[in-house]
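User: Run a structure prediction on this.
Assistant: Running it now.
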Amino acid sequence: MSDAAMQIPETPLFDRARSIKGYKLNKMAMDLGRPENREAFKADENAYLDRYGLSDEEKAAVNARDWHEMVRLGGNLFFILKISAIDPTPMTRIGAAQAGMDHDDFLKQRLGKH
């Protein structure tokens, strides 16, 4: 199957190239599994992000909690979900962002909630 046939429109595929691109972002997010790192992130988010050498673009995506952008930049959704546990951000908001939908519309259309 060709690469073009494997593409899902407007969905970044987490492949080897994207994994390499997002290594620092994913490493930072994975390290939030440790309590002392969560505390450091909460105390000074930008200083915590600087520890990992994130680009300005990556830092902006994390600061804005722009889940779709973090994935586009190479973030593995399973790792960046660790960021959502700090705020906490409902999983449905992340799902809506990934689908490019308003949260209320997502709840109605995808989950049948009114």
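The chain has a mean pLDDT of 85.
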